[in-house]
Amino acid sequence: MEFCELAQQRRSHRKFTEQEVDAEALRLILRAGLMSPTSKGQRAWQFVVVEDKTDLEKIADAKDMGSQFLKGAPVAIVVLGDPMQNDCWVEDGSIAAVSMQYQAEELGLGSCWIQMRGRGLSDGTTADEVIRGVLGIPDNMNVLCVLAIGHKADERKPQNEDKLKWENVHADKY
Description:
The protein is an alpha+beta fold. The chain has helices spanning 3-9, 23-34, 53-60, 89-106, 127-135; strands at residues 46-50, 75-81, 109-115, 142-151. Helix 2 (23-34) runs antiparallel to helix 4.
C-alpha cells in the first residue's frame, strides 16, 4: 500500500473482535515506534504492552470519559516519557504513537489513541496516577497516551478527499 493510501485509510477504531493480535504483528508495531524520529536522537520514550484483561479494564477506568472501549481491545500500548530527561517527551511520544498506528493499519489492524496526559477522574485523581499504579510505572515517567489495538470489528470509510481543509494551509505567510 502506498503511504498516500495508508494515510487515507487509517481511521480510529473503537470496536475490536476477540481475536488476539499475533506476536509478530505486535513486534512490527513496536518496531515502528522504536524507529520513529526523536529530538536529538534521544529515543527516550518507553512503551508498556498490556494484554491482561484486568489491567486493560483498570486502565480504561483511569479517566471519566473516552476510554471505556479499551475494555474490548485485545492489547494496549502505553506510551511514556520522562520530562526531566527529555523536554520533547510529548512530541517524541506522539510521533512514536502515530508511527505505531500507521503500522497497525498497514497490517490490517485497527487502533485508537486514548489521551491520558492531562486527563483524570472527577475526584481529582489523574489518569497518570491510576495507570502508574496499575502497571508499576516509576514516578519519573509520565503517561502520554494509550493505544488500543486489535482486529477491526467495524468498518470505517476512508478519509474523504473532498473534505480536506486545504484552506488551513498557507504559503509563505499566514
